[in-house]
Amino acid sequence: MPEETTATYGTQRKAAERNRAAILEVAHDLFAKNPATSLNEVAKRAGVGAGTLYRHFPTREALILAVYQHDVEKLVGSVDELLADRPAKEAFIEWFEMLAAYIRVKHGLGEALHHAAIQDAINRTYAPVTAAIGKLLDACVEQGSVRPGLGAGDVLLLMSFLWRVAPDALGVAQGRRLTAMVFDGIAAPEASR
What range(s) does the HTH tetR-type domain occupy (predicted)? Predict the structure, then answer.
């Protein structure tokens, strides 16, 4: 392939990747506010044409699935950064608050997430999510804020109250009170004294 053609291809590929990323970010935000947002509105807000959106995501379900997978990857990928920037217990709490906000969006998508392919993707994300929780738990154990031997799946179920509280200021405050209660229950013996 001539050098000019290779450079053009590389430029086009980068533009396509930027467009895809913009579509996913905008779709996430718009679906969080209104799950019935039209794909044309997503394209418009992402600054791309409808054809570009449909080239990347030929159906609404394909876009919803991609948003879901993108969000899970971002969430799972955030654990190391959180742990690098703050104590493990703070990272744990912040990560679960992000998970709760994300799950509220997922629940808002309702019917769209009951499509079989999307349910498959949801089932496949359980392992990466529990692995992320395991990493947070290990860091908390190492720093002495929780006792060892807790199962990531059990902690995920225990923390599920967070996506049941209201997403307003009162709900956030209630979630933080409940999280404090959870930490009292899972605290390392030395940490609870």
Answer: 17-75
Give the CA count within 13 Å in the CB-facing half-sphere of 131.
12
The answer to whether residues 121 and 65 touch, using CB atoms and an 8 Å cutoff, is yes
| Same-domain status, 84 and 27 | no
Domain count, the chain: 2
Which of 14, 35, 58 is where one domain is finished? 58
User: Is 131 found in the same domain as 52?
Assistant: no
Same domain assignment for residues 36 and 121: no
Asked if 106 and 68 count as a contact pair (C-beta separation under 8 A), the reply is: yes
Taking CA atoms, 101 is separated from 69, 96, 167, in Å, by 15, 9, 8
Domain of 105? 67-193
Residue from 15, 67, 2 nearest 39 by CA: 67
Q: In 14-113, which ranges are E strands?
A: none
User: How far is 145 from 190, CA to CA, in rounded Å?
Assistant: 8
> Nearest Cα to 174, choosing from 157, 161, 184, 185?
161
At 31-66, the pLDDT tens digits run: 878 878 899 999 999 999 999 999 999 988 889 888
Residue 128 token pair: 């990466």
Q: Could you give the CA distance from residue 57 to residue 43 in angstroms, rounded to a whole number?
A: 11
pTM confidence score: 0.76
